Amino acid sequence: MEHILPENWALMYFGLIFSITCAQMLVVYVLSDSSNPPAGLGLYTVYFMAALLGWIAATLQQASETPMAVDLPAFATIFNSYILFLAAGQRAGDHRGRLPLGLICLGACLSVFFLPSARMFIVQNAAAVLFFAGIAWQCNARAWRLGNIGDAIIASAALMMVIGMPLAIYRLTVTEDLPLAQSIAFGVHSCAYALVAIGFLASVLIEYQQHLSHLATEDPLTGLLNRRGLGDALFISLAHAQRKGLSTTAVMVDIDHFKQINDSFGHQSGDQVLQHVARTLDRLSRNSDVVARVGGEEFLMVLPDTDTASARVLAERVRLDIGEHPLLVDGQRIPVTVSLGVANAIGEVDLDKLSQEADRALYLAKRGGRNQVASVDNRPVHLSTGVSGA
Q1: CA distances from 243 to 92, 192, 249, 287 (A)
Q2: Residue 72 domain-assigned?
Q3: Number of folded domains in the chain?
Q4: In the Cβ-directed half-sphere of 257, how many Cα atoms lie within 13 Å?
Q5: What is the pLDDT of residue 157?
């Protein structure tokens, strides 16, 4: 180790930074070609590229015996810190503070032409502390809201800067040793940059994993659960019903004459009808109920701890609400009605069998003329319409 010269250390350091930046840029390039690029990708790309140029300038300044006319590393530190603030804000959906911090960034960047090195060091690091405090707030809020550890890593890097830069300024004011203060700031900034790169990669990977998980369990058009998500959501409820011998009821919902709606008004209007029905089901259901889209125009409501009579009441509310509120699309009123089938099980529940029973009841409702509620519960079939009930 003692045979490694300082200029070789600088070369090794630059190689490490260059490798990290190139790896991040490769990830950014791949993500930018996806159909749904992550939020803030463009500004993070600018940050990584600008940061690489800043590290090159810092390395050249350290290796050169001739001082530069303009303190480019100081300029790069201020500019990159503000770009990272913008990127973190865009990713978090928080645009507060852009204008005032932008003015501070402009003023601090212009200072490189007027201030000596020692004062410029204080200005650049004070500005960086301000920007990274905002970054820490934004990333920490996003990490807390979305449960994304990658954003927490970026927030930790920002806190490292918030703590480390004042220490470097303190060393300068106490000892007046600018090279020592610069070394402290250089080391803190290097660690923070590496953590930002790691945190951004982790944040994007976790976000994509969550997105894939949602695609596997949720219907993208309506936002309701699909069949797989339905089983996952009901796992605990069905186990509780089995232990306690509770009643579980399923309501199968089917949009009447949906093919005719598509043919007459177009598939886009058909999609809006599906979303309209999904919103109604979600609005009228209880927090404990689970609603899923299980077919093209079929929905399934599973009602834990609910008997058939109570489920029929809810089904009637759904039928009336949808029937009395036609959908208005581009000035056209699209009448929508639904048929519903109700089935019940007590104690241990086979979800597939219960949904089949509800589907059988739905068939009876459609056979009876549609826009009806039918139920099967090992007793005579019951039909009800808006005109008469049974």
Answers
A1: 43, 53, 16, 21
A2: yes
A3: 2
A4: 12
A5: 92
Average pLDDT over residues 169-189: 83
pLDDT at position 162 over 70: yes
Backbone phi, psi, residue 71, to 5°: -75, 85
Same domain assignment for residues 76 and 189: yes
Q: What is the CATH number of the domain that holds 270?
A: 3.30.70.270
Whether 259 and 120 map to the same domain: the answer is no
Q: Which range of residues forms the domain containing residue 156? A: 6-217
Average pLDDT over residues 6-18: 56
Domain-located, residue 1: no
Q: Is 51 exposed, middle or buried (0-12, 13-18, 19+ CB in 10 A)?
A: buried
User: Hey, which residues does 334 pair with through a beta bridge?
Assistant: 327
* pLDDT tens digits along 39-78: 777 788 888 877 777 767 666 666 555 555 566 778 888 8
pLDDT in tens, 120-156: 889 989 999 999 999 999 999 999 998 889 999 999 9
Same domain, 302 and 321: yes
SS3 content of the chain, % helix, strand, coil (to 5): 65, 10, 20
Judging by DSSP bridges, how do beta strands 373-376 and 338-346 pair with one another? parallel
Q: Classify residue 390: in a domain, yes or no.
A: no
Of 7, 297, 324, 357, the catalytic one is: 297
Residue 370: partners with Cβ closer than 8 Å, 6 or more residues away: 256, 257, 337, 339
Residues 365 and 39: their CA atoms lie apart, in Å, by 47
Q: Are 191 and 161 in contact (CB under 8 A)?
A: no
Q: Is 316 a catalytic residue?
A: no
Residues 149 and 188 placed together within one structural domain of the fold: yes
Task: With respect to residue 133, please indicate whether it lies within any of the assigned structural domains.
Answer: yes
Nearest residue to 145 (alpha-carbon basis) of 67, 203, 99: 203
Paired tokens of 71: 């303190």
pLDDT at 10 over 60: no
156 Cβ neighbours under 8 A, 6+ residues apart: 195, 199
DSSP assigned state of 373: E
